[in-house]
Structures are given as C-alpha cells and as structure tokens.
TrEMBL record:
Keywords: Cell membrane, Glycoprotein, Membrane, Receptor, Transmembrane, Transmembrane helix. This is Putative ionotropic receptor ligand binding domain-containing protein. The chain crosses the membrane at residues 334-355, 367-382, 394-416, 582-602. Residues 19-208 form the Putative ionotropic receptor ligand binding domain. Its main location: membrane. GO terms for cellular component: plasma membrane. It holds the Pfam family LBD_receptor. It is a multi-pass membrane protein. The gene is Dana\GF21033. It is found in: Cell membrane.
C-alpha cells in the first residue's frame, strides 16, 4: 500500500453530496474485493488503482469504496494514482494490472492510459468502474470500448452500477460473427452477492476470429515463404505456419505488398518490409524470412521465434576434384611412392652388379637391364636369367609388384567409383587457414559483424551480393568458380541458410554437388512481426510455442528440403532391382545363346558333310 498516497487521499476535501445507501456501497465494494481476490491476486503480487473524476459527487462515493477496499484487501501491494482534471501530471510505474475508477468517458481520457503502454509488447488488464447516470452509461461505455480498440487494449472491461444497485460487467468482442472490428458493449458478468456469476473475468477474444480478415505484409523468399496471390495458395516453411495459424484462429488473409513487388520485378529487403509496416500502419503482421532483431524492437513487436535458421558454410565439390595427375598419384602417399622407387633402384642395382661380375647371362647394356626390371614390375614377360639366384630375385620382385599393383588397382577403382575429392574443409578455421574467399548476402554479413568471434571470417576476402535471395549466393559462387583465373581448385566458399541450400540443390537436381562444412556458423531466429503493442502478440506467442513444441516446424522443414537427397551421390529412384532393370541382361544373354546354338549346329552339319576334313 502506498501510505503517502493513502493519507493524501483521506485528507482531501470533497464538495457535493453522495446520497447512495451504505448497503449499495458495501455491495459494490464487495464486488470489487471478490474480483481482486479471484483475479489480480492469483496472477500478480500488485496492481494499480487510478482515480479520475470530472464531477465532485462521485469522488465521495469512490472515497467510501476505497475505505472499504483498504479494510478487506491487505495482502497485495496497491499503487494509488489520483488524476486531477486540469492539472495533468505523468506518474511512471508498471501499468499491467489496472483498476480504474472513473465517472465518465472524459475522465477516462484524462488518464491517457494508452501513453503508458504504447511502447510495450505485452497485454495489460483494465477493469474500469464507470460510475455514471443510467441514461449516459451506454453512450460512455461505447466510447470507452472504441478508445480501447483504437489503442489495441484488448483486455478491457467496464463495470457499472445501476441506480437500483445492480452490478454488471461489459466488454467488447472485436471479432464477432459477421462483425469485424466491432466495439459494441456485450454483457459478460453480474455480481450476485457473495460471488460473480462467472469467474472468467476476461474471456478470450482471439480464439476464434470468425473469418475476419488480417492484413499480412509478406515477401517471397524461398524456401521460407512462397505464395500464389491469385489462387491464395501459400507454401514453404513459414507459409505452412501461416496456414496453421489461420486454421487455429479462424481468420482470412489479405496479402499486402506482394503485387507491388511482382509489378516491379523485385523482392523487398527485410528492412524495406518492416519500414512499410511501420509507415503504413495497416498490416497486422509481417512474415517472410524476417529475423528477430533488437534494432526493430523500438517500433514493432516480435512474436516468439518460430524457427532457428542455421547459417552454414559450403563449397562446390567439383572445385575440389582431383586432376588427372592427382588421380594417378592419389592411391599411395608420398612416402609409399618413395619406398617403391627405392625398391626399384635397389633391385636394379643388384641386377647390374650381378651381370657386371658374371660372364654371359643377360646380354645388353644397363638400359636394357633397367627395362627388364621395369617390365617385371609391370608383370610383362622377360627372358629368364640363367642363374638360380637371379631367377629367385626376379620371382620375388615379380610377386612383390603383383601385390602392389593389385592394391594400386583396387584403390584407383575406389577413387573412380566413389568420385573421391581432395581433402575438404571441415571447420571455419580450415577455411581461414586455406585462404578461401567468402560469398554471402547482406543479411548474413550484418549478423556476422555483431559476433566478435567471427572477425577472422570478416578479415578474409569477402564478396557480398546485393540481393537478400539465398539463390543469388549460390549463383555467384558457381560463377566465380568457373572463371579461368580461379584455377583448377578455386578457393571460394559460400555462407547460406542450410534449408535454402538443401532446397536449391533439390530443385536444381544437384544432389551430391556441394559439401557442407560441419561447423555451424550461426543461428538466425526467425519471427513474425506485429504492430507495436499489438493485441495479437500474447495469443500468437502461445500458438507459436505450442506449434514449435510438437515439432510441426521441423516436419515442414523436412517437407521443404531433404538432407538425405542432398547427401546422396547417386540418384536411384529405388535401391531394389526390379525385373524391368534386368531386361537388357536377358536380351544380351539370349542373343549369345542363340548365336552359340547356331554355331553348334553349323559344326555338326559340317562334320557330317566333310568327315575328316578341315572345316574352314
């Protein structure tokens, strides 16, 4: 309890009489007490009471009500704010749970409650006790709800007390069947003495929007959001999310900005999209590969992030193909080749020493001896030496080279069969040490600049594409790799969204064409943006968290692009061999059998026709 405010409130002098019976005052105070204990006391440790009156008589009434409340509500922290007409004064403090005591619509407008919460992202609760003449209550109540809806105050209730002592609570439902943007009062509760008729003091107004239209500002960014405006069909990861939200909340969608982008043959940047939302003040939400970023929090409200978009590094596998010389030398390491050359020289030296000291035997010069040893290493026939010791030497050399040739042939077949490459970079440090050039979009560059650990990447030679489309990064990477100046092994890598890379590889039928660096670069939190202090924020937060918790986002991401397809090197429609796959074998074998039968018949006929002769 704010004791200073209470003493000031108690010491005020009021002019005008308040002749309402004490029993009615007790009844009204009891209604407020039950509401406070049933609702505010359950969800918060404190609330604020704001008193604003244009006429003197209701002030005395509220003074009596407050005295009764002080006696009964003693377990909560209460902040008391008195608004005096003609003496505006701004009093800061949390305005989440509010009890407003006013005597007219004008007195409510004097409080200017929307100015305290216009820059917040949450939803507040306003329980307004309107003490007005019975004839003026409907008009003022309509004005209160119009004010609340105009400033996105969705949890706004008005309690009234009639001259007969009846205490009622009204609210408004902006999304009613057949009436959108509706601010007409609707009765929801009544105090029956010991308790309220219903304990649902603030009924949900967003569970069912009854087909009302929400304006969606969007941009096409594959694979996250794609749309056919003409047929109202959306797909992509965020397209599925928007459809699911529309189904659960039962609202229709009207897209804004897509026709302008299509007419200009362009795609808005993220900053342009959100600027349009702030300046236009028409769209309810913005979607389309929009990152949750602190720089937008001053003007817009972000929903709970629905997807963590991974940024990864990747290289072209063709840029790391082995050259012809590298293929021939790749099966053995350099040490193995050195050992083979040393063995060849040792055998050649022993042979030459032997034939120098021996008369006869192998005739020819030293070159012929070397060629004989080389021919034996390849398995070619050579003239055998006369001495048994040389025969054993050649036989051991022949067996040794036979094993080496078998190993070399098997490894060479493995290289050609599985299309092996040079050692591929496996971390960001490998890319930095290798002197690679980075290609990325402007959005990725902005995120990298905010992370101090990635300054080594920014120190590399960097190519930034002007577009925010991820496919442009892929296109530029392939274009730079095909330049003659890039050499046989161009040191270029791209930074791109993993989902975009998977989807682009599948769409272009490029399975096995890229290598993803296993170390993740960073994660971008994608979110839906709303107008600042939007009434949709709390409900959309709850829905997005529930959709993400059950794994629907990952399921949709798997539908958009398959990592299994991306990593496959050979595109078989099915791994099992069917009969239709063997028809060529059957035809070939059948033709050979027919030829052999004809040859056999020809031999039999020839043998009988020319017995003992020479068939030619």
């Amino acid at each position: 309890m704010n004791v200073t405010s209470l003493l000031l409130f108690e010491s005020m002098k009021y002019s005008g009489a308040q002749t309402q019976a004490a029993s009615i005052n007790q009844h009204v105070a009891q209604a407020l007490r039950v509401f406070i204990e049933d609702f505010y006391q359950r969800i918060a440790p404190a609330f604020i009471v704001i008193l604003s009156c244009r006429r003197p008589s209701p002030m005395n009434f509220y003074r009596n009500i407050m005295q009764l409340l002080y006696e009964s509500v003693d377990t909560m922290i209460i902040q008391l704010v008195l608004v005096e007409f003609g003496r505006p004064r701004r009093i800061e403090g949390p305005r989440t749970h509010n009890l407003l005591l006013v005597d007219s619509l004008d007195a409510l407008l004097d409080i200017e409650i929307h100015t305290y919460t216009a820059m917040s992202d949450g939803s507040e609760y306003y329980f307004i006790f309107l003490q007005q003449r019975d004839a003026l209550i409907p008009q003022d109540m309509q004005g209160v709800f119009a004010y609340c809806w105009r400033h996105q105050l969705i949890n706004c209730n008005v309690m009234t007390q009639s001259s007969g002592g009846q205490v009622l609570v009204h609210t408004y439902f902006p999304y009613a069947p057949g009436r959108c943007n509706n601010s007409s009062p609707a009765r929801i509760n009544q105090f029956l003495g010991p308790a309220w008729q219903s304990r649902d003091y603030f009924p949900s107004k967003l569970r069912n929007l009854h087909g009302c239209q929400l304006v969606v500002l969007a941009r096409r960014i594959s694979p996250f959001f794609e749309v056919d405006v003409k047929h109202q069909v959306v797909w992509g990861l965020e397209g599925h999310l928007l459809k699911e939200l529309s189904r659960r909340m039962n609202f229709s969608i009207m897209f804004d900005g897509l026709e302008e982008q299509q007419r200009n043959h362009t795609t808005w940047t993220e900053q342009k999209l959100l600027q349009q939302m702030v300046q236009g003040r028409v769209a309810h939400l913005a979607i389309g590969y929009v990152r949750k970023h602190i720089q937008y929090s001053g003007n817009l409200t972000a929903v709970f992030p629905h997807y963590s978009n991974r940024i990864i590094g990747f290289v072209l596998l063709n840029a790391h193909n082995l050259t012809s010389l590298e293929i021939w030398s790749f099966p053995f390491q350099a040490l193995a080749w050195v050992c083979l050359v040393v063995c060849f020289l040792i055998i050649s030296g022993l042979v030459m020493i032997y034939f120098r000291q021996t008369v006869g035997g192998f005739r020819g010069d030293r070159l012929a001896l070397l060629l004989a040893v080389y021919a034996a290493s390849l398995g070619l026939p050579v003239e055998p030496p006369e001495r048994v010791s040389m025969q054993l030497l050649f036989a051991s050399w022949l067996c040794f080279t036979l094993v080496v040739r078998a190993m070399y042939g098997a490894l060479l077949f493995l290289i050609l069969r599985y299309h092996l490459h040079q050692r591929l970079p496996d971390s960001l440090q490998d890319l930095v040490d290798g002197g690679y050039t980075a290609i990325m979009s402007r959005t990725t560059l902005q995120d990298l600049r905010e992370v101090t650990g990635f300054q080594n990447i920014l120190e590399l030679r960097t190519i930034v594409v002007s577009s925010e489309l991820e496919e442009e990064v892929l296109r530029q990477l392939e274009r730079f790799s095909e330049r003659d100046s890039a050499g046989s092994h161009p040191l270029i890598f791209g930074l791109i969204s993993q989902d975009a890379l998977l989807q682009l590889a599948e769409r272009g039928h490029r399975a096995g064409a890229y290598h993803m660096v296993s170390q993740q670069v960073l994660e971008q939190q994608l979110a839906i943006y709303l107008q600042k202090h939007s009434h949709l924020a709390g409900h959309l937060d709850h829905l997005v968290m529930s959709i993400r918790a059950v794994g629907l986002l990952h399921h949709w991401a798997g539908q958009v692009a398959s990592e299994r397809y991306f990593r496959s090197r050979y595109l078989y429609r099915e791994k099992r061999i069917r009969q239709s796959d063997l028809w060529a074998v059957y035809v070939l074998v059948g033709a050979l059998y027919i030829c052999s039968v004809f040859a056999f018949i020809w031999e039999v006929v020839s043998a009988r026709r020319w017995p003992g002769g020479n068939v030619a």
